[in-house]
Amino acid sequence: MTEPNRSGKERGLILAVETSCDETSVAIVENGRHVLANMVSSQVDTHKRYGGVVPEIASRQHVESITLMLDEAVSTAGIRLSDLSAIAVTQGPGLVGSLLVGVVAAKALAAALRLPLIGVHHIAGHIYANAIVHELEYPLMALVVSGGHTELVHVEAPGRFRIIGQTRDDAAGEAYDKVARAMGLPYPGGPHVDRLAQQAEPGEGTPMPRAWLEADSYDFSFSGLKSAVLAALNSAKMRGDMIHPVRLSRGFQDSVVDVLVEKSLRAAKEFGARQLLLAGGVAANRGLRDALTARCEAEGLPLLVPPLSLCTDNAAMIAAAAYLKWERGQFTPLSMKAEPLLSLEAWSV
Ligand code: KG4
Ligand code: ZN
Question: How many domains does the structure of the chain reveal?
Fold first, then answer.
């Protein structure tokens, strides 16, 4: 039996745009789950030569890529624009110039097609990337670890977010990138440090401090650890000693992972979470995945991790989060602005 030909309004067919940092992405997703297209154009090769994202260059590249990504998403999905139910876009947080390109493109589409517009919080997107591939059960605890964020988010019910802990300085991915840069590894450094750390034997890592902060705190701090790695590198250089990137990477990674795993498990327990969700670019980290998998298994807590393609920035996750608002008819006016400091809690449904 074939599916009846339903209209876009009933299908919940959302076209989403993500341009918050250095990926230009457009996706078309049905009912927040069924990904028909998820085109991502990464600017990594451009920013590599500067050792990090250059905001002005990022915005210019978004301008160059956005139309092409839109065309490709529509043709890959095999839909007509008239099939769409809504247009979603990352409203914030992110680089203001980059966000603006996506916001302007999304507004233009929404106005031309007379469709509702949905501004989406980037971190809600990272969390709801999990909903594309897993059944979520509430209350849940989400550990969001990316280049710009390190947060523990209590999600009591669909789309209801409460941040219970966050970094007081560097984000986990940012610390990875800075440590990698000091070791002469290319940008983004996280995957390189991860790869080196995997090559160390257990116990071979250079001993590094762990920032537990106050006993009851769910906050994080990675700048002391980053400084410890830089100090180890500098003193080795000054003494003319050999630098051991494998041992240093392992010591650094063990410290990051220990603190992330310990605090996530404690938070999940205290808030009665039925699942622990991992989200954001650093969710690709092998050491973190392995340690969380082992601890969650031991504690009988289901761990949800999105596939790698949905961990790093992409527009399918923005469509998945937008669906929460679309179902409730919560739309954003066309006067919407890009909000580099948008609050996740305020974005709750
Ligand atoms: O979520 P994302 O794509 O962009 C932001 O919203 O920030 O995350 C990018 C971050 C970068 O800092 C990158 O180094 C880090 O994720 N990353 C990793 C790994 N893969 C990506 N960090 C550690 N281990 C990895 N395997
Ligand atoms: Zn991100």
Answer: 2
Nearest-angstrom CA–CA distance, 349 and 347:
6
3 in a structural domain: no
Sheet of 303-304, strand order = 161-166, 150-155, 140-145, 275-279, 303-304
Residue 1 lies in a domain: no
Distance (angstroms) between ligand 1 centre and the Cα of 174 equals 8
Mutate to test the pocket of ligand 1, among 282, 289, 290, 344 (most ligand atoms within 8 A of CB): 282
Residues spanned by the domain of 118: 9-128+311-347
Give how far Cα 119 sits from Cα of 18, 51, 77, 91, 298, Å: 11, 31, 22, 5, 39
Ligand 1 atom 10, closest CA? 147
Instruction: Give residue-wise pLDDT tens across range 188-231.
Output: 999 999 999 999 998 999 999 999 999 999 999 999 999 999 99
pTM for the model stands at 0.94
Pick the residue whose CA is nearest to atom 5 on ligand 1. 147
In a domain, 4, yes or no: no
The total number of residues shown for the chain amounts to 349
List the structure tokens of 252.
């650094």
Supply the DSSP symbol for 297. Answer: H
- How many angstroms does the Cα of residue 231 sit away from the middle of ligand 1? 23
